[in-house]
Amino acid sequence: MFALVDGNNFYVSCERVFRPSLVGRPVIVLSNNDGCAIARSNEAKALGVRMGHPWFQCKDFERDHGLVALSANFALYGDMSERMMVVASSYAPRQEIYSIDESFLDFTGVPGDLVVMCRDMRARILQWVGIPCGVGIGPTKTLAKLANYISKTTERKPGSYPQKLGQVCHLGAISQDELHAVFAATDVGEVWGVGKRIGAQLREGGVSTVLDLVRLDASTVRRHFSVVLEKTVRELQGTQCIEVDDQPAPKQQIMVSRSFGHAVTKGRDLATAITEYTSRAAEKLRGQGSAAGAIVVFIRTSPFRKDDPQYSATVTVPLLRPTADSALLATSAIAGLRGIYKAGFKYAKAGVMLVDLQSTDMQQGELDFDALETPPGHDREVDQGVSGSALTCHQSGQRGRAKLMSAMDAVNGRYGRGSLKLAGAGLEIDRKGWAMKQERRTPQYTTCWGDIAVVRA
DNA sequence: TCTGGGGTCCTAGGACCC
DNA sequence: TCTGGGGTCCTAGGACCC
Predict the structure, then answer these.
(1) Cβ(A88)–Cβ(A114) under 8 Å?
(2) Is the pLDDT of residue A9 over 50?
């Protein structure tokens, strides 16, 4: 059996831990630049705020309904996530951290009543971390995911499902008839793996509930749709097709991109931003022990500003050799930027992507042909005896850079991100024109000494 | 004025190989 | 009349997830 544990309205719940006055009120958390809603309390959902709802379109709720909107505080959410994951992990032999607020637990071989254990886990996470969770249990990950949805819906809209399926919902512990009733009452679009497109296609073919989907023949689904949806159907039927992955492989690509707080027109500002993003991407790269073979740079105007001239460009810059060196990567990125930048446009967003990633301990050795050139006055035959040193010399240079990078990471780890950075990433004053807008950010209560909460007697 | 930032997997089609 | 039969690798694009 598998369980999916996830924090309810996670970002909002994190904020409520430190501002209990927000409990019971409509609250949303906004994306970067305070652009749109990315988390909503149940009260905010009830008001009709959608996921991804642009803030400027729902601002009126602030005045009319007391909606509280906060800027995203990812330092806080990341830290709260870790705390929640640690508690959850103590309940099962294996855990897959699936996203910032969700983890799968694999209970294979664990004796005892899972519902009782999961209720205990839920209570402990609530008490120790302060985050309310929903737990779904099922014989496959897809069913656990569905169970989790049902547990939430039972809480949020009483009467949708039997009350016993609230908070902790175990789809493997109810009768076949009950299970089918649950399937029949659930829209096919709620299934993990069925998105907007596939959902519409299914409905067109008369498959509108989970029950309709479960009753399809899996191999027919493969022919009409894809192997992906076939797996989904089999998982709903109770056959495990998707494993719990508790040792995720290193990422195959690393992206850092941001929309700007204000439109950017100067190449110089774009260069500052690209340098900063590259630097951040390189930190992530080193964090997973990889080196990049190429860097992709992109810039674009805002597709929402239809009256402005539009421009969007991407360039891939191959690197001479794979590297995780921030400075080398930034130099290449800027070279790429020079190739695609055009003056006269209002840029809204830029980003970099590190690709062709490989492990640093698997790196190809190489001969440095420059060092192998026979210097004048030397006998080639004689010098060949020392040709191995060219390689050694080159590699020791690389090791020096690697040490520099780990020193940089250590300083930033201890004194905070950005304490030590590339000159090209600019000072605060250089970023004024385009830095991200975060007008409603709460303190970093758990990760910054200066922001720690004070209890008054 | 104002619209996020990441990722993964699969498939189809083209280039190229023998 | 009639023009093989496999393969692999790469890329772009689509679909999904949070």
Answers:
(1) no
(2) yes
Q: Which residue reads 């400075």 in tokens?
A: A327
CB A36 under 7 Å to nucleic chain B: yes
Contact, A352 vs A294, CB < 8 A? no
How much is the pLDDT for A344?
Answer: 94
Q: Which of residues 268-327 of A touch strand B (CB under 7 A)?
A: 277, 284, 302, 304-305
Contact yes or no for A356/A320 (Cβ under 8 A): no
Query: pTM of this prediction?
Result: 0.91
Relative to beta strand A94-99, strand A102-106 is: antiparallel
CB atoms inside a 10 Å sphere around CB A332? 21
Tell me, what's the pLDDT at A365?
A: 61
> Could you tell me which of A375, A445, A447, A443 has the C-alpha nearest to residue A414?
A447
Q: Which position has the higher pLDDT, A449 or A340?
A: A340
Residue A313: its H or E element: strand A312-323
Task: Calculate the angstrom distance between C1' of C11 and CA of A312.
Answer: 20
Query: Is residue A123's beta carbon less than 7 angstroms from any atom in nucleic acid strand B?
Result: no
> How distant is C1' of B10 from CA of A59, in Å?
40
* β A2-7/A102-106 pair status: antiparallel
Q: Is the Cβ atom of A355 within 7 Å of strand B at any atom?
A: no
Q: What is the DSSP letter of A36?
A: B
H helices of A187-226, in order, are 196-204, 210-214, 218-224
Nucleotides on strand B lying under 7 Å from protein C-beta: 1-11
